[in-house]
Amino acid sequence: MTKAICFKEFGGPEVLTFSDIEVRSPGPGEVLVSHKAVGVNFVDVYQRNGLYKVALPAVAGNEGAGVVEAVGEGVTLVKPGDRVAYAGALGSYCQKRIIPADRVVLMPDSIGFEQAAAMMLKGLTVQYLIRRTYRVQQGETVVFHAAAGGVGLIACQWLKHLGARVIGTAGSEEKCELARRHGAETCLNYRTDSIVERVREITKGEGVPVVYDGVGKDTFDTSLRCLRPFGLLVSFGNASGPLPPVDLSILSQLGSLYLTRPTLNTYAAKRADLEQMAGELFQVVVSGAVKVEINQRYPLQDAAQAHRDLEARKTTGCTILLP
């Protein structure tokens, strides 16, 4: 038996229960991982509330780090005792779990379990956003919404490391200051600033080539209007709620714009891509170019409170659960 955070129906944080569940032995191609730390992300909220449908009953969570306890038949990628981390695999809010071996990666010795659990999903997301969805070049200016969040703080640092200029947005001056300390050249308060006007002013009327938008409903129109002709809106989250239906003619009206809705699971579906993405993430963290800020820690049994705080935008940086 192991302790886990489960949900049998979609709904608010109250549907999360701290329960005992059985853990079987790993089958062919699988490993048993004993968690040392587990990450908390908005995708966990979307799955819990039903915005992203998952099969019920389910164990919540998508990211963790720990030690391999046992391996199934045919597993050669890792062995018992290895320190591993992963992201994008439902079922992480627990003490122990079974997971496909090809979804975990070996951790560098210099990265701790808490750091790994906090950064895998967010860091891999940043990697594909800024290196693959739109490969940001030195000297380019980009807009990144929710710049003081877990994804945003990693993105601000990584983009600065690449020589890009970041216009961040956040919901308070305190959060804007946090984003600026982590590499945003400018951070706009979406509660008080006219985002589109300020972006146009900063870019001398041109707009930016790409906007990264993990906020969703509240920022979609603003994001489109910050783009220059042929610009790309990367919509990768729904922190403020899902997008309403989109009239694609707006893309032509605002300058032959592009719109994409990428996911980590697509970018990391192939083992070779996952290894390359994780390697690049580990490199920028080990080098010190990107520091992972863990600003909230909760015991595993307090996962519901972690969700409440995340949804209320009370958190900054990364949040983890400790089994």
Automatic annotation (TrEMBL):
Domain annotation Enoyl reductase (ER): ranges: 11-321
InterPro entries, alphabetized: ADH-like_C, ADH-like_N, ER, GroES-like_sf, NAD(P)-bd_dom_sf, QOR-like
GO cellular component term, pick one: cytosol
A Pfam family of this chain: ADH_N
Keywords, comma-separated and alphabetical: NADP, Oxidoreductase
Gene Ontology MF annotations: mRNA 3'-UTR AU-rich region binding; NADPH binding; quinone reductase (NADPH) activity
NCBIfam families: PRK10754.1
Protein name from the UniProt record: NADPH:quinone oxidoreductase family protein
